[in-house]
Amino acid sequence: MQKATRARAALSLALAAGLACATDRSPAMELSSSAFGHHADIPALNTCDGRDQSPPLAWSGLPAGTKSLALIVDDPDAPDPAAPKITWVHWVLYNLPPDAMGLPAGVSELPPGTREGLNDWKRTGYGGPCPPIGRHRYVHKLYALDTVLPALQPPTKAALERAMHGHVLGHAELVGYYRKQR
Prior knowledge:
Helix content: 10-25%
Order of helices and strands: HEEEEEEEEHE
Radius of gyration: 21 Å
Strand content: 25-35%
Low-confidence stretches: 3-25
């Protein structure tokens, strides 16, 4: 009888602790686009076959204490998804203000304080999907940081990842696909 009472008490405490933890959790960070869904095809408009304009992006559920955001868009399937050799970087942004709720399609004016990094074409700005062969994945990664980063020299994806180390509060991903039109 005593064992059963202790077991019920332990179970009650565990359930209460679990409920307390569940109510303390903030919603998960989310990254989305009105142009394409997660694991769906990216419209040609956002690629080298179209106007090569950045897709609209929206985010929510930023963790408490977020001081800035970083965005990296890359293609881990380059040059051929059947035999990938490199990850091709399409867009690097950092120090996006946490009160920005997203970026419009074809963004030309970034939120105040935002810094641009270099893509693998060695230029700043968005470079859309333009795969030489096959259907590639394009991973849009948004990071919530507990700091505003210093100016990066050089402002590459690798430099950004080093600077973010130890400062990531949360992250979200949006994956889109594209096959070049022939």
